[in-house]
Recover the amino acids of this structure.
C-alpha cells in the first residue's frame, strides 16, 4: 500500500530539501552538488527524495522558484501600497533591497564569493532570469502609475521595467566584481571610488530611461561603500 502523506507534511519536507540545497549551493556550488549530498544533508533515502523531485532538473526549477518567492515577499507591500506615489514606490523598491542586503550581510558576502564561480554558472543564470522577469514586472507597474501621475515620461512604458532591470543587473555585477577584486590585491581607495562612480552613472541612466527628475533616486556615497569593504575584509569572522 502506498504511503499517505498529509499535504502540510509533504510541503514541509519539500521545503527542507530545498533549504538543504540552498545551503549546499552556498557552501559548494550547484555544479559540485550531487543528489547523494542532498540525501546526506536531509538524511533521507533516494526513494524518498524522488517522491518530492523526480529529477535534478526538477529540483533546480523548484529551487529557483523558492528564491523568486522569497525575493517577492518584501517588495509586494510597497508595490501595492495605494498611498505611495510612483516615485516613492521606486525609491522604496531600491531601499528595501538595500536593507535586505545589509540585514543579511554575512549571507550576501558568502553568496558573492561563490556566486560568480563556475560551480554556480547554471543556477546563477536561472536565478537571475527569474528575478529579472519578476522585478521588471514590478517596475513596469510603478512606471505606469508614474505616467498617470505625470511624474514619469518614458516613451516605452511596457519596456521600462526590462530596461531598468538590465541597468541594475549590470550595476550589481560591476559592484560585485569590484568588491571581490579586493581579494586579488586591488587598491581599496580605488575600489570605493569606482563603486561610487559606477552607482552614480547607472542611477543617472535609470532616471533617463524612466524620464524622472535628475537626482530623484539615491546615490551611494563612500561611507556606505566602506561598510561592504569592511565586510569583505572581515568575511572570515562573519
Amino acid at each position: 500500500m502506498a504511503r499517505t502523506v498529509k499535504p502540510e507534511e509533504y510541503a514541509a519536507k519539500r521545503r527542507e530539501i530545498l533549504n538543504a540545497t540552498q545551503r549546499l549551493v552556498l557552501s559548494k556550488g550547484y555544479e559540485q552538488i550531487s543528489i547523494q549530498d542532498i540525501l546526506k544533508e536531509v538524511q533521507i533515502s533516494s526513494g524518498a527524495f524522488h517522491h518530492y523531485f523526480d529529477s535534478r532538473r526538477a529540483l533546480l526549477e523548484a529551487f529557483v522558484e523558492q528564491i523568486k518567492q522569497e525575493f517577492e515577499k518584501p517588495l509586494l507591500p510597497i508595490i501595492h501600497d495605494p498611498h505611495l506615489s510612483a516615485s516613492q514606490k521606486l525609491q522604496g523598491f531600491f531601499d528595501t533591497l538595500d536593507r535586505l542586503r545589509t540585514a543579511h550581510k554575512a549571507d550576501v558576502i558568502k553568496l558573492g564569493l561563490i556566486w560568480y564561480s563556475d560551480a554556480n554558472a547554471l543556477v546563477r543564470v536561472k536565478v537571475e532570469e527569474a528575478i529579472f522577469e519578476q522585478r521588471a514586472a514590478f517596475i513596469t507597474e510603478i512606471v505606469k502609475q508614474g505616467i498617470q501621475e505625470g511624474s514619469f515620461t518614458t516613451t516605452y512604458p511596457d519596456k521600462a521595467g526590462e530596461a531598468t532591470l538590465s541597468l541594475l543587473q549590470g550595476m550589481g555585477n560591476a559592484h560585485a566584481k569590484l568588491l571581490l577584486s579586493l581579494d586579488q590585491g586591488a587598491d581599496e581607495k580605488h575600489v570605493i571610488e569606482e563603486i561610487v562612480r559606477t552607482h552614480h552613472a547607472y542611477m543617472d541612466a535609470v532616471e533617463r530611461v524612466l524620464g524622472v527628475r535628475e537626482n530623484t533616486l539615491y546615490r551611494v556615497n563612500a561611507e556606505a561603500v566602506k561598510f561592504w569593504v569592511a565586510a569583505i575584509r572581515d568575511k572570515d569572522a562573519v
